[in-house]
């Protein structure tokens, strides 16, 4: 339920509505807008609560209208927040049709490997470099990342090349450390419902790149975003990175492109697609990256390695530098055609 106040409603009138909501044992969410305030109520209301609220709140002064919402997320929703969110990091805009590519290796492996990656990203006209320092690996025996050393490399190289950096943080207690070195905090697919992590990332004030869990529904995904937003952090970027496939013998995951227009309709947050983890196969990355833009994504995240055969993680899905440069050219042409900025 959303209660929209009249233009010019007084703080006392707004407080009276919030109070009436509290009296039903519910927590009001006061959302000041440009010309009027809206007050949200969690949608899991019993019909009694809904009727009482409609009667009590409807009679209060300063109330313009009461709208029933069927969606459990609020701050992430278009209903609550009509303007499209543009996340701006060091002058790079993400969202609302600004075309971005986040490119780089799966893992930061050495200063040399990451510098070479940055050269390629930069020469292809890119603005954001990715790379994992803390790696969520299925097996504890696989390369776990260079951890803080990797973050230091990322910071050094990002500064040297003037690139915005993004890296994954896997637990709440590591948020301050990762936030010290990188510009955008990635929350990986496996962590999408790590609620304490979402809260800490929200509190960090850094932009948060939230990957959809491999079996998360749209509501679960947007509610995860809601955790970050509800900490007062408006800078959340949603990332579709593939869901569990019916058949793993051809692709690692299935890129769910149909969620792109859905997210664009129900949420104001930027949407980025990661066809690298989405397909797990380097030769399928380019077609799905292009399809993502056509589907309405604001950008793509692409894994690229100076020498994919030697990669310590996700080598089979990494583009070579040549493939990456070519894809960037094709995507830029496509973005122009689509009228992206
Ligand atoms: C990654 O970006 O390297 C990664 C581990 O992603 P995901 O969480 O989507 O698997
Ligand atoms: Mn990876």
User: What is the helix/strand order?
Assistant: EHEEHEEEEHEHEHEHEHEHEHHEH
Q: What is the molecular shape?
A: elongated
Our Rg estimate from Cα atoms comes to 22 Å
What's the N-to-C terminus distance?
35 Å
Provide a count of the helices.
11
Write out the strand line-up for the largest beta sheet, numbering strands in chain order.
7-8-9-10-11-12-13-14
- How many β-strand runs? 14
Helix proportion range: 25-40%
Bound molecules: phosphoenolpyruvate, manganese (II) ion
Mean of residue pLDDT values? 95
Low-confidence segments, ≥5 residues, pLDDT <50? none
The SS-based structural class is alpha/beta
How would you summarize what this structure contains?
This protein has 341 residues and is α/β, with parallel strands linked by helices.
Question: How would you sum up this structure, described in words?
Answer:
The protein has 341 residues and is an alpha/beta fold. 36% of the residues lie in helices and 17% in strands. The protein has eleven helices and 14 strands. It has helices at residues 11-22, 47-58, 111-123, 148-161, 175-181, 195-204, 218-229, 259-266, 275-279, 282-295, 321-337; strands spanning 2-5, 29-32, 37-40, 63-67, 87-89, 92-94, 100-104, 128-130, 164-168, 184-187, 208-211, 236-240, 271-273, 299-303. The two termini are 35 Å apart. Phosphoenolpyruvate (PEP) binds at residues 106, 132, 136, 188-190, 211, 241, 277.
